[in-house]
Known about the structure:
Chain A contains 11 helices and 19 strands. Chain A is α/β, with parallel strands linked by helices. In chain A, helix 3 crosses helix 5 and helix 6 packs parallel to helix 10. Chain B is globular and about 70 Å long.
Amino acid sequence: MRYQHMFVLFEHDDGNALNVSYEMLGEARRLMDGFNSRYSLDEKVIAILLGSGVRDLAYKAIDAGADAVVLADHEELRYPRVNLYTKVICSIVRDRMLIKQAAPSTSDEYVKPRYMLFGADSIGRHISSTVLAELESGLASDVNKLVIDDVTITHQYKTNGKPELYRQILFMYRPDFSGFLWTQILCLDNKNPAIAREYSPQACSVIPGVFKPLHHDGDSSRVGERREDGEGARIVEYRPEFSSDDLRYRIVKREIVRDEVGLEDSSVIVAFGRGIKDDPEGNIRMIEEFARLLNAKIAISLPLSKQPFSVSSELKDRYLIPARVVGSSGKRVTPRLYIAIGISGAMQHIVGMKESDTVIAINPDPDAPIKDESDVFIQGRLEEVLPILIESIKGSGKDVGDGDGGAGADAGARVLEMEKGKVKDRDRARV
Amino acid sequence: MHVIDNCKQRLKVSVPAPLIDMNGDTLNVAVMVKLEPDLSEGNVSYNPDGTLNRSQTKNILGPHSAIACRAGMYAKVCYDAWVAVCSMGPPTAEIALRDAMGICCADELHLYSDRIFAGADTLATAETIKHGIMRMGRRIDLVFSGHRAVDGETGQTGPQTAWKLGFNFIGNVVDYSVDVSRRMVRARRRVDLPGLYTVLEDVECPLPALIALDPGYRDNYRRVSERLMYARLEKEARRRVADYKNHLKVWSAKDLGVDLRYVGLAGSPTIVYKVEKIPKAKASRRARVVGSSSVEELREVGNLILNIALGEK
């Protein structure tokens, strides 16, 4: 068999694992358990771990679902550099002897991986692209559902218009930018004799936060199954050697920065979407005032980050920016109170806010999907509803101070943050 | 020890002769751009189910492509670079090239347009653009690409083109500078690590390189001389745009000398098998519905909001 196993790039920052690494391994475990039993094969989940002094992460990868880990531990690999990492990763996955050590079931004809998973983030997005350019195969990005199945395809190019059976195909589902459509992407060999070509691995980058890590299923049986030789999970080392040319790409300085918006730490969030369209400038100003009264941070839905409205550059630069996006392409937030103004509620937005304690939505459309995620749904135009809410809050004489839109935004936020954590129990009855 | 010598990256590129500007003093820049649906309000049209109505939505130079053009202009202002803008697309994509010229005062526009390119995935697109960049008649030192297209949203074509060209790839760049005599580029990257933190990383690497700009890229013209030069080039850009067709070269697959098995649908490993509506999730909450006409009820909600915000139950 020329193509075997599912490889997962284990992503971390100098030893701090990214959650998406565990999520990918959990999903890989589930997929390959199903694959092996369905096709009576013995293919493995192999984590690829590059870094410096990260051996302990190899054990964590095994606990999280890997059958084996190929570890390239080298000072020069401390932080990802796309070209260097790509060379190391491609060398690993093409090294039949090495893969045989990691997975003794590897065939003598092994050439390349069957499947590969990466995170759809600042690390995996680019490395997946270059790795698949080098391995000359297909790559889907930002996937949130994976299925392995056989399928009969009739395609003008791939099959020359004739039906052909494709086996063990990875169905890669990705939501489109609107969040309403799901596209199934398949990576298929050209069976058409005129352009015959095999494409492997079938690979994708997966959206962080979508798949469940293994242990959340209550399966902890793999803990303690660490065996570096003999049966069971294995860790094999790969010792890279670099040319001086490879190392001319240097990381000069690294600095961890605080998120300038800080949505994740906020206990009250006011979010807005395309519903502001009738008077973008005026409506954002009004939302700003509303947020200030509640000491809330301001978030937006993804379409707004594409700056579809003409508003003053002051508002544009402050609010219509990717750092404020809530959803699968942005932040996942869990505030005490989430107020969605003029947001219809595409799935890609919902995944970012559905864990909020209380959700209040303002929307004129009685069928807007956001309604199913709301505790209170105010059916109406924000231009009518917000002034009344603002007035009633002002009238109470208890406004909470400076959120986004006011001076000293963060000073007020800190006071409220002390409350965070205390009020996590969901008391929907109060609504 | 494992020697990393089985990657084809360095071997793949053979730059056709003859080339000019081999003395290393001139910085030769290519900007890759894409024609994309205009998602701005008033131009975009959505179907009743919330999906994009493509036939009713006009196409423009993509916003991330425009950022790549700003980086190209910066190279022109600060390093007196020669700049070409290129795009793979239908004949109508020349308007994206025209608008790109207006931003970066491009010297040349290159459109790779052939029915055989249609339906290409990122790998096949990168193959086409690689050939285009190799055939610009100059040794290209620096390529700029956007972060990702607003419609495809993969962000893969930039890094894949870099790899196929054998160039260093630097992604998520918010600021850059070039040391032309040392042939080195220095860049600041913004690395978002979901669930951890954000890192600002300064890197340095030799040319040739391909830089994908972060949406947060800012062109900072720090010196007065740079601002003066910018103003001059902006004026020149307007003049060129009026006459853009004289700077435009359209390339077919044959002109580019691509292997037809590696471009378009034939060269695309992936296909879009199905497009379906994302099924509506099960309602996770049962909303109390409040109408907008009942001021009393709205005031009550206002109080509720305030109480929750204050942390009172």
